[in-house]
Amino acid sequence: MQAIRYSIKSLSPLLFASNTGDPNMVSTLDFIPGTHLRGMFANEYIKKRRLGENAHKDETFYRWFLKGELKITNAYIIYENYHYYPIPLSVQEDKKEKGNAYDLLFQNEEFDKQTKGIDGYVRFSGNYLYKFPVKKSLNFHHARDRERGTSKEGLIFNYESINEGQTFEGYIIGEDKDIKDFMSIIGDGIYYLGRSRNNQYGKIEFRLLDKEPVDFTGEIKTEIDDIQSAVITLLSDTIVYNEYGYSTTDIKGFEKAIGCKIKQAFIKQTEEEGFLSIWRLKTPQEVCFRAGSCFLVELKDGDIQRLRDLQKKGIGMRTHEGFGRFVIGWQAEENQITIKDEERTKPPRPEGAPPEKVKELIENIIKENLKKYIQIMAIKTAKDFNNLPPASLLAKLEDAVNKRELTKKLQNLKDKAKINLEKCRSKNADLYEYLTNFKVDVSHEIRQINKLAYLCNEISYQPENDADFKKELEKIYLTTFLSTMRKKKKQEEKK
Q: Domain CRISPR type III-associated protein spans what residues (predicted)?
């Protein structure tokens, strides 16, 4: 089995939608899925060979993209030539001793530490675990009326996206001739990938990093000392079918797929549902073992070599789309693991206080982040209220907020309007009470946003003492809150 490495650099924000259950929120995966790359490569092949709708009749196209003889792995974040992969679920941080972690697969019954899961992507070096995050952002957009081609009034939804300027790497695996043929057709260049490619998302720089195919044994090179047991760690979501042809996360099904008995496991389940643009249909939903799931397995004679061979191909179904990637022997028995956060190289800090222009710029960054966060919280809170009042009443309250007259408006409400607000409730309060007592706790909001308190301290800025900005935040929150309710009420009335 041969392979070539490829890299993808994000030249604009990237969005690979993942299901959150929130109709007004589109979250992104934080890696480049092999499924999307397969589609990109297939489209490029069709263009280069001018196959049109008859692509499936082309023997090479069929073998590579339909039969799956070319395997395209997910691309994960890299930093300074180090590769980072999903953290094993059994590696957990000590709740009391921050920075210390343990691999629970190797702990006995006497282990009494309280631990919690660790997010993100990691690499191991001895008894050190190095974390590195994928940078993401949240963007606001107006919902579109598909029939009219215009924005829907007041209806906002949120796109989470991978930030530009980050690099990801993966592998294309197959036979030597197929990979050489692939390299002659799919070249380095600028491509578009993921969702909303017609807007400001999806621009990437794609590069093949090897000049020739190389022997491939797996994504991570490992050595196994213990010939009686080893740990299998999933590097990507993995689809295993049971005897009835359905996807399953049953341990017995996984044992059958790898041909080994499992002594202990840490697993999580996720779901995969794709979309075939040529058919304009969703693909059947599959349940998967989530990336990071790990299994301590018993080994018998010949198992190591068999698992090494399987490591090249992958476990289960749809391995040509990046599913089923795993490594054996990545997790080793360490009494204690020290967690370290990788830090980007920073220029030396200038001496003295920041210039006024810099302070002004940082203050604007702080304010914009708080405004975005306030809007998100307003949308989420609005959805917690049930039995909404008439849309006309909500519109009047929104108008009062814009005129800075909400308190006066609430005090002068007619009995019927007040009753409508009191009937509208969340778990904690009715709407009349909520609006009457509403205040923005700026200090609390600052603590919820990563490193915002640090920025405030750097320029000696205290937003909680900025009366004008506090009023602006309250206005943004309340107008977003009431507008979200009003749109929700209108949608309910249309049903």
A: 8-205
Which of the four pLDDT bands, split at 50, 70 and 90, describes residue 394?
A: very high
Cα 288 to Cα 246: distance, rounded to the nearest angstrom: 11
> 17-33 pLDDT, tens per residue?
876 555 566 788 999 99
Average pLDDT over residues 370-377: 89
Q: Assess whether pLDDT exceeds 50 at residue 150.
A: no
What's the whole-model pTM score? 0.70
Backbone angles phi and psi of 2, in degrees to 5: -115, 165
Nearest to 372 by CA among 119, 172, 156, 200: 156
Locus of tokens 């915002």:
452
Distance, CA of 416 to CA of 309 (rounded, Å): 74
- Residue bearing the bigger pLDDT, 152 or 255: 255
**CA separation for the pair 379, 481 (Å, rounded):** 6
Under the phi-then-psi rule, with left for phi > 0, alpha for psi from -120 to 50, and beta for the rest, what region is 256? alpha
Nearest CA to 435 out of 412, 406, 399 is that of 406
Domains observed in the chain: 2-84+137-215 (3.30.70), 229-332 (2.60.40.4350), 356-494 (no CATH)
| C-alpha to C-alpha distance for 38 and 35, rounded to whole angstroms | 5
- Please name which of 354, 359, 355, 365 lies closest in space to residue 446, comparing C-alpha atoms: 365
Tokens describing residue 380: 């989420």
Name 301's Cβ contacts closer than 8 Å, sequence gap at least 6. Answer: none
Query: Nearest CA to 195 among 160, 155, 246?
Result: 160
How many residues would you count in the chain? 495
Q: Are 485 and 492 in contact (CB under 8 A)?
A: no
Given a contact cutoff of 8 angstroms between Cβ atoms, the answer to whether 379 and 484 are in contact is: yes
pLDDT more than 70, % of the chain:
89
Structure tokens at 235: 């590097």
pLDDT at residue 154 greater than cutoff 50 = no
The confidence score (pLDDT) of residue 494 equals 76
Q: Say whether pLDDT at 133 is over 60.
A: yes
